[in-house]
Design goal:
Blueprint (H helix, E strand, L loop, with lengths): L6 H14 L9 H15 L4 H10 L4 H11 L10 H19 L5 E7 L5 H13 L7 E8 L2 H9 L1 E3 L8 H7 E5 L2 E4 L1 H4 L2 E5 L17 E5 L9 H14 E8 L14 E5 L2 E5 L21 H4 L22 H7 L6 H10 L3 H12 L6 H13 L3 H14 L4 H13 L3 H14 L4 H13 L3 H15 L16 H15 L3
Parallel strand pairs: 1-2, 1-7, 2-6, 7-8
Antiparallel strand pairs: 3-5, 4-5, 8-10, 9-10
Helix pairs in contact: 1-3, 2-3, 2-4, 5-6, 7-21, 13-14, 13-15, 14-15, 15-16, 16-17, 17-18, 18-19, 19-20, 20-21
């Protein structure tokens, strides 16, 4: 039996994982930290938790090692229709209102299960939609399910569950939506399974909202039993990012125990049968989330050592004020006022997409619309879920810069969101015709072919992307990726391919 890890080492390690992964382990949970780190250590190839901890503290963890550690430090405990009040709120309160507003306006619904574990939550969401929308085939529904753990995602994509996953589910769920495949194991029916798209995403580190990972313009986000693991700073950042991922009027659903663990002040709140849920309401300007106050410790040398004699302060010399500049020279040195594009870009980076779409067209009204401003408007409209306007502005951007492959890639992401796979594929091929080394177009085509169950074509584009990414340093930011590094994109590709392999 391995000896216990020294407390001083556990203290350093708990600080390390808070900074590196965003997970919070106070002293009273150091026993859990040591035990679960041991599981990760053996999976990675270390003999025990102490050997792995010393390695982690003395050298950089790879992204793969960090994610194996994170997956072992969080509990993969879930089941169908967990916390029934959340699904009652979805079916009886949120969806009916959403259906009324969208029935004559696009018929698009986008949901995200963030931290989906082995898939019981997103499949429960899919079943809720199937029950609530009689004409579901006439709607364009997206259910994105993400997790940091590739093994969880692989199990979720296989969609086979034992009795334990149904322990609190209503009886009709198994009878109506599953087929028994072997002793005490059940497979979800194909029409429900195909409603959910699984993807690898790290809430503590990855960029979202983003067209690249399909996390933009969400109507409803389930993010339950995730914030409870984060440090206050990471929880605050995650909630702000999720807020920006939602369209105006969109909903965030967290677990009942998490409503008091993190700041949700930017949302308006609603109560359904005692469950608190959160809404993004742009008609009520959000208050900034109030950060926790950390008292800075200042070491008082004189108090600690009575014999201490402070060195004399160096003399302070005053310099005469320089003569004022002539007015003409002042004007020459003054920075030029920001252009309409620069003003709109600053708003976009703050997640103020509605302000971009409201202000930038007005600012451009008197001048010529440039390609950069048009593409920014396309992104802002896409992040608001207004895909018709997004496509219009994207086409204006392409008209002004027909040889820019990034614009065809942007158009493809919008078309895919509209579920126009054939047109999206054509745009991506056009982007690669203009630049055969365009990494993101290869990745996007690989994902499209994966959706179409064409593994050979998907594999070819993923291989091309990996070959291109290997020419970059791991920490290099890839163009048009909204901040993703070469190493992170390779991890995502490998995770996608791992989910597609059979056991």
């Amino acid at each position: 039996m391995a000896a216990a890890v020294p407390e001083a080492l556990l203290e350093r390690f708990s600080r390390f994982i808070a900074e590196r992964i965003g997970l919070h382990f106070p002293r009273q949970r150091w026993g859990d930290l040591e035990r679960n780190t041991g599981y990760a250590a053996r999976e990675i190839g270390f003999p025990d938790s102490e050997a792995f901890i010393r390695h982690a503290l003395s050298s950089s963890l790879s992204t793969n090692q960090a994610e194996i550690l994170a997956s072992n430090l969080t509990i993969g405990e879930t089941y169908f229709y967990r916390e029934k009040k959340a699904f009652e709120a979805l079916e009886q309160y949120i969806l009916p209102e959403l259906l009324r507003s969208r029935r004559s306006n696009g018929r698009n619904i986008r949901l995200w299960s963030a931290g989906c574990c082995t898939g019981e939550e997103p499949y429960s969401i899919a079943i809720a939609l199937n029950k609530s929308i009689p004409d579901l085939k006439d709607w364009n529904t997206t259910i994105l399910a993400t997790d940091i753990n590739p093994r969880f995602l692989k199990r979720a994509s296989q969609a086979i569950y034992g009795e334990w996953s149904f322990r609190e589910a209503p009886r009709w769920l198994k009878e109506n939506y599953f087929t028994k495949v072997k002793s005490n194991h059940y497979e979800i029916k194909p029409h429900i399974k195909k409603m959910v798209t699984f993807a690898h995403l790290n809430l503590a580190e990855d960029v979202y909202p983003s067209l690249l990972n399909n996390t933009n313009a969400m109507d409803i986000i389930f993010c339950r039993n995730v914030m409870m693991y984060f440090t206050p700073e990471h929880a605050r950042k995650t909630i702000q990012n999720l807020y920006q991922c939602l369209v105006d009027g969109g909903w965030l659903i967290v677990s009942s125990i998490e409503t008091s663990l993190a700041p949700y002040s930017q949302f308006t709140t609603a109560s359904f049968n005692g469950l608190t849920i959160y809404r993004k309401d742009l008609s009520s300007p959000p208050k900034a989330a109030t950060p926790e106050v950390y008292k800075e410790f200042v070491f008082d040398t004189a108090a600690a050592d009575p014999g201490y004699i402070a060195e004399p302060e160096p003399p302070v010399y005053s310099c005469p004020e320089p003569p004022p500049l002539p007015e003409a020279e002042k004007a020459e040195k003054a920075p030029p006022p920001p252009t309409p594009y620069q003003q709109a870009l600053a708003l976009y980076k703050q997640g103020l997409y509605a302000e971009v779409t409201e202000r930038l067209p007005v600012m451009l009204a008197e001048g010529q619309v440039d390609s950069g401003s048009a593409s920014l408007l396309a992104r802002a409209y896409a992040n608001r879920g207004r895909l018709v306007e997004a496509l219009e502005w994207c086409q204006k951007a392409i008209a002004g810069d027909k040889l820019n492959p990034a614009l065809y890639y942007l158009q493809a992401t919008i078309l895919e969101e509209k579920d126009d796979i054939e047109a999206a594929s054509a745009c991506l091929k056009q982007a690669l015709y203009l630049d055969q080394d365009f990494v993101l177009a290869h990745i996007a085509l690989g994902n499209l072919f994966t959706r179409q169950q064409k593994p050979a074509q998907a594999g070819r584009h993923f291989n091309n992307a990996i070959s291109l990414l290997k020419t970059y340093p791991e920490e290099a930011i890839i163009a048009e990726s909204e901040g993703m590094t070469a190493g992170r994109l390779m991890d995502i590709i490998n995770s996608t391919r791992y989910m597609g392999r059979s056991l």
